[in-house]
Amino acid sequence: MSSLVLLGTGCPSPSDLRFGPSTLFTHDNKNYLFDCGSGVTQRLSAAGVRSSEIDVVFVTHIHSDHIVDLYQLYISGWHQGRDSKFKVVGPRGIKAFFDNLLTAFRSELDGRIQWEKRPNMQGLEYEITEIDDRFTFSSDDISILPFEVDHFPVEPAYGYQIKYTQKNVEKVIVISGDTRKSENLIQHANGADALVHEVFVDLEFDEKRMSQETLVNVCDYHTTPKEVGEIANIANVKKLILTHFVPPVFDQKKVIKDISQAYKGEIIIGEDLMSVDIK
């Protein structure tokens, strides 16, 4: 049994409609979490999954909106009875980031350990794997392959290709992470059953919080609706699932219209806690 749930479909802008970016893939009763945005533990709870039940966290890149709740997931999983290592797979630098998180929370965590007397101390152990594009995660009949995308100046940044077997048929889901239009992503998404892709819609200029350069630069390392349509068309994906919307509220009909100029397949405007069937 497999399922894909969009836990959070937002961006750095706070929104009560769209929490921070995070996607959950479940296969054979194992839970694989892609990114760990703001509110991920609440969204997991709403989806009926305990933080302690996450088997591996895959991080696409080290931007705050994708990793801000990593410690919350770690500590809440322990509170909920995790009795095995907290496992994180991600780009170069993710180990130092997590070690620094634990340093920042050390006195708080030590106080909890000493006072709460929980029996599952092994649940506080952790395993951080820093990857390159030669890494492959394999377990039973699933493999998860990272591939580099173009989110410069953030380097490295990865998308993930998930391959698994469902009713004796191989299925492929690709998660873009944050990226410009990427040829490497197109190659890895070729013929995929589903492509979960970020989209940059627009930003309304506000001189109190941005400059004209802000508008240009933020747009420059993301993907516009028209470009997402071109990617999905060239890759010939069966289903396009949109997430990581900038901004969180936008004209959905226009986004679909812009994408449809190039891509004629199924387009899904992702919503938080949306479960998507992969047939």
Fold and architecture overview:
28% of the residues lie in helices and 29% in strands. It is α/β, with parallel strands linked by helices. It has a single domain (2-276), classed as 4-Layer Sandwich (Metallo-beta-lactamase, Chain A). A 7-stranded mixed sheet has the order 6-5-4-3-2-1-14. Strands 7-8-9-10-11-12-13 form a 7-stranded mixed sheet. Strand 9 and strand 10 form a beta hairpin. The radius of gyration is 19 Å and the shape is globular. The termini are close together.
Features:
279 residues; Metallo-beta-lactamase, Chain A; 7-stranded mixed beta sheet; 9 helices; 29% strand
Would you count the extended β strands for me? Answer: 14
* Model regions low in confidence, pLDDT < 50 over at least 5 residues: none
Q: Please give the domain count.
A: 1
Q: Order of strands side by side in the largest beta sheet?
A: 6-5-4-3-2-1-14
Instruction: Report the end-to-end length measured between terminal Cα atoms.
Output: 12 Å
**Protein structure class:** alpha/beta
Q: What is the string of helix and strand elements?
A: EEEHEHHEHHEEEEEHEHHEHEE
User: What portion of residues belong to β-strands?
Assistant: 25-35%
Annotation field: number of helices: 9
Rounded mean pLDDT is 95
Cα Rg: 19 Å
The main sheet comes to: 7 strands, mixed
Please name the CATH topology. Metallo-beta-lactamase, Chain A
Secondary-structure arrangement, i.e. CATH architecture: 4-Layer Sandwich
